Amino acid sequence: MFGKPSTGGNCGCPVSPLSKYTLFGYNFVKWFEDFMDTAFLDLRDRPCAETIQSNVEKAVQTARQRNCQYCSPVVSGGMQVFATIFKRKLDEVIAKVGITCLSWKT
What we know:
By secondary structure, this protein is mainly alpha-helical. The protein has helices spanning 30-45, 49-65, 71-105; strands at residues 22-23, 26-27. The chain has a two-stranded antiparallel ribbon with strand order 1-2. Helix 1 runs antiparallel to helix 2 (49-65) and helix 2 (49-65) runs antiparallel to helix 3 (71-105).
């Protein structure tokens, strides 16, 4: 998880106190929250893997620009793993919508 070094505490990245996204009770760092917001907005216009990947690349760049000693070295690998899971889930949802649409027409 980004923003939580194994030594405990938070990394140097800002955390939104009223985050919309949490995991195990922890708020995400701001750059990840911005990624999620932007990705979901962009997916409304272009629901495909390329949309996720382009947002991942922007998030990696944003995180690295912060020069966080914790996030910078791990952000690329972590975000690529997250993108793989996100894309798989998107494909599952799109497949369900396609089946529902086909069922509705018959």
